[in-house]
Write a structure and sequence with these properties.
By secondary structure, the protein is mainly alpha-helical. It has four helices and no strands.
């Protein structure tokens, strides 16, 4: 029997790991070395967490979306990233997270 917590944590952990690796390819793959900060690893992490929680508790979107907007505005205003970096992080993190939750969700043993 698969515990309910494991049904969330396994795909959540896989989504975090996958998104982190993709967002940080510029550290390991020479072809991506000149794309500093693209996409934003911070926003990719945030949207992975927010998407996972939205799948677990749909009402959490009412909190996570305004926080995403505030956080995004702050890291652009502080010149850490551009809006393009944030948009690509969102476009990366949301589908990767949804895919990980669809693929890695353990089925209950009957």
């Amino acid at each position: 029997h698969v515990r309910p917590r494991a049904r969330f944590l396994l795909p959540f952990g896989l989504a975090l790991l996958t998104t982190w690796v993709i967002a940080h390819l510029d550290h390991w793959v020479p072809a991506f070395r000149n794309v500093n900060g693209f996409p934003s690893g911070h926003m990719a992490f945030y949207f992975t967490v927010a998407t996972s929680f939205a799948m677990l508790i749909p009402r959490s979107v009412a909190v996570t979306l305004p926080l995403a907007a505030l956080y995004g505005w702050l890291i652009v205003d502080l010149n850490y990233h551009s809006w393009w970096d944030l948009l690509t992080a969102m476009v990366l993190a949301i589908p990767v997270t949804l895919l990980c939750h669809m693929v890695a969700k353990p089925k209950p043993i009957t």
